[in-house]
């Protein structure tokens, strides 16, 4: 299933994206907020799926912190960077709506605007499949922009109400919500949401 990301980038943006992240890191920006957020809630060596892993920035940091990490993405150009940077991690090319691992995961992290970049009509199916990869009482963490200022150009926002409905249908219960990866308080006018969910069925 073609994602909005592929439509926007042509599936050939891996090197450009990696270069942009490297340039940002040189400015002193915190590049590991997502991984730190996970580490504050889940103890290593939990098994974690980096869903929509891209070039592997989050998953690689989690592996450095002692987690057992797997990554999945549909963009081969992004995965090529991840495999070159961290060949010891299992990076899989797959649609999130179809990806299945027989052992499941203690936690799933889905960052980097993966949710609004899903293909049209894919939200419910993707959420159900991701929830199925979470072990009983497992954690699923999602972070994505809610307005144009926090999304790639040309990407329409996914209403938070739609995401919440898909989360509930998938058997996930929201337990925390913030406006950023550093734990800023969420409010209805926030342009970004980080949601922590637990699998309840």
TrEMBL record:
Keywords: Methyltransferase, Transferase. Residues 48-138 form the Methyltransferase domain. It comes from the Bacteria. Gene3D superfamilies: Vaccinia Virus protein VP39 (3.40.50.150). The keyword Transferase applies. SUPFAM superfamilies: S-adenosyl-L-methionine-dependent methyltransferases. One of its GO terms (molecular function) is polyprenyldihydroxybenzoate methyltransferase activity. The keyword Hydrolase does not apply. GO terms for biological process: methylation. This is Methyltransferase domain-containing protein. The lineage of its organism: Bacteria, Bacillati, Actinomycetota, Actinomycetes, Sporichthyales.
């Amino acid at each position: 299933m073609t994602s909005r990301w592929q439509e926007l980038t042509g599936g050939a943006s891996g090197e450009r994206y990696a270069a942009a992240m490297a340039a940002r890191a040189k400015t002193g920006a915190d590049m590991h907020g997502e991984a730190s957020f996970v580490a504050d809630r889940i103890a290593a060596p939990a098994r974690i799926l980096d869903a929509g892993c891209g070039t592997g920035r989050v998953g690689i940091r989690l592996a450095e912190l002692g987690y057992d990490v797997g990554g999945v993405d549909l963009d081969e150009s992004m995965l090529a960077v991840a495999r070159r940077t961290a060949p010891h991690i299992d990076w899989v090319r797959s649609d999130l709506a179809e990806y299945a691992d027989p052992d499941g995961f203690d936690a799933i992290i889905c960052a980097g605007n993966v949710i609004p970049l899903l293909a049209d009509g894919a939200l419910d199916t993707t959420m159900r499949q991701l929830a199925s990869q979470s072990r009983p009482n497992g954690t699923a963490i999602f972070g994505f922009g809610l307005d144009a200022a926090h999304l790639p150009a040309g990407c329409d926002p996914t209403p938070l109400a739609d995401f919440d409905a898909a989360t509930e249908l998938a058997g996930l219960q929201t337990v925390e919500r913030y406006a950023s990866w550093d734990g800023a308080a969420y409010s209805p006018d926030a342009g970004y949401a980080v949601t922590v969910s637990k699998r309840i069925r």
